[in-house]
Amino acid sequence: xxKKVVYRCIGVLLSMAMLCGCxxxxxxxxxxxxxxxxxxxxxxxxxxxxxxxxxEDVTEESVNKVKDAWQRVSEIVPLTDxxxxxxxxxxxxxxxxxxxxxxREIDNDNFYEVFTDKCTDLSYxxxxxxxxxAFDYTPVNTEDEVKEYLGNRxxxxxxxxxxxxxxxxxxxxDMQMSRDCAYYLTxxxxxxxxxxxxxxxxxxxEWLADIGFTAxxxxxxxxxxxxxxxxxxxxxTIYVICAGNTWEIGDVEWLKTADAVYSVLYETExxxxxxxxxxxxxxxxxxxxxxxxxxxxxxSSEGVISHINTKDGIITLVSPYQFIHEYVHWTLxxxxxxxxxxxxxxxxxxxxxxxxxxxxxxxxxGFKHDWLDEGIxxxxxxxxxxxxxxxxxxxxxxxxxxxxxxxDKGKNNQLSCAEFAEGLASLTLFGSEDREMLAPFAGTIxxxxxxxxxxxxxxxxxxxxxxxxxxxxxxxxxxxxxVDSIIxxxxxxxxxxxxxxxxxxQNYLDNKLYMHFLDE
Length: 520
Fold this sequence. Notes:
Strand content: 5-15%
Strand order of the largest sheet: 7-8-9-10-12-11
Largest sheet: 6 strands, mixed
Helix content: 40-55%
């Protein structure tokens, strides 16, 4: 049985009386037709709130709490088109214009945030700030203390992303600072501007200047996408939806803090946008929007290689460094038989992202820097390579790397130059006896698929290439035929390019077509 409660208010609490036995006419989509009406005994106006009771034992306390929340928030936000329902979770109702609550939600300490969230379409921090503003929040920290805290932050963004408010990712003191930051910023805007201005514009720079904070925090389109991400806890997993992608974050060693999650979401979203722009500039088929596809990402601390299920777009990610590589597998998949081309595409189109990641995280250190940039190799490593007869390969990698770096002076591209140098060295030695000794240092695509993923690949010459070598062949294939030849592929290399992939690669090797990368 459903009861519909209609309140008429003009901004003050009204005395109510339960009038039973009245028949209510249910609109299309209503739950039932039996209803009672709880109405004002004294006052009426054009402003009213409608509350449907989905159970006979809904308490008056719950009804009053919803009414009070509606009254407070509606003084700031127009809520005239919203109806409410209260009842058990099993009778949760969804239809346009109806907001449902369970009594458990109403009884919870965070009900006013839940109410504000369900009645508005705001990013998380704005929901928190608006609820605090509407329900007489008393901040723990003064505005000067928040200012000092922000001044000591090393991150480039304000701590307003949803996970800054989750105890799984933030210390209690940091969560409190995020709450107080949200409150002061919200109060500043709503005291000066309208709710529509608050919901659609950003005034953080103005507020920071008003409190005398001189340093700039970054807030670009990618930051905005991350800040508007939703976050929901289910058991031990946090589900974050950012720009259409779902991140299922459990206990992951490299995602322990809100700052770490923010950084990963920012970098991967920026990487996707740059990738979409690049492919759109090369393609007559895709634009930026049509190339983009949503994925589900499951970060993991286990294993050394990320992978994607290309049937449903689920990426198991062991390092954010590998994200765009796996994303390209989802957006530019060619054919399982030609695994070398799939890997070549992923490696080729992720280089810019990986260069930026390497530079931003100061990760061009250690063995590769020592050997490639400085020509220094410790005795233990040298003995290992000499025993495997791989020193010729290592010396060629360094020779080619230095040539490529000289050609592109001033760019932060050590990583991509190293990838090309390794591919060129591998192609140079392809077919030689020493090349067979490289497996521990540069495994073929067949080796990687078999040993790391447990997947057998087709008997193709290309699948005997290392990943960086496949990238070079792919780069030249795209340069000659265009990326649309891949996008519009029939799935048969012979039909697409007029010869088998074995014939294509053998000709490429025989004529050393890859050496043009070293030309001036």
